[in-house]
Amino acid sequence: MKIEEIREMSMQELDHRLEELRVELFNLRFQKSKNLLDRPDRLRIVRREIARINTVLRSKGSEVTRG
After folding, report:
1. Which residues, in sequence order, are CB contacts of 21 under 8 Å at separation 6+?
2. Domain limits at 39?
3. Which of 4, 23, 25, 29 sits most deeply, having the most CB atoms within 10 A of its CB?
4. For residues 36 and 62, what is the distance between their CA atoms, to the nearest angstrom?
5. How far is it between the farthest Cα atoms of the chain?
6. 21 with 49: CB under 8 angstroms?
7. By three-state DSSP, how is residue 2 classified?
8. Domains in the chain, number
9. Nearest Cα to 60, choosing from 1, 13, 19, 11?
10. CATH code for position 25
């Protein structure tokens, strides 16, 4: 998901997507520990998307605080 797409999402959508990604990351880590991971690059992609969403959430939160 591109950063532009993330910025267009509402706060509720971002929270929901973040929760989905955290569950997916948990499952991927579990698969990795059991050597069942078929796409190891997916771990990196999910972590980066979580970081992007957290960045946008913080920036939107600071905009709301400023007024």
Report:
1. 46, 49, 50, 53
2. 3-66
3. 25
4. 41
5. 49
6. yes
7. coil
8. 1
9. 11
10. 1.10.287.310
- Rounded Cα gap, residues 44 and 67, in angstroms: 35
Render 25-46 in DSSP notation, one character per residue. HHHHHHHHHTT--S-THHHHHH
pLDDT at position 67 is 64
Here the tokens at position 54 are 């957290």
Q: Are 46 and 28 in contact (CB under 8 A)?
A: yes
pLDDT of 64 above 80: no
Helix (H) or strand (E) run with residue 56 in it: helix 41-66
Amino acid at 3: I
In the structure encoding, which two tokens stand for residue 25, read together? 């990351």
* pLDDT tens readout for residues 2-61: 999 999 999 999 999 999 999 999 999 999 999 999 999 999 999 999 999 999 999 998
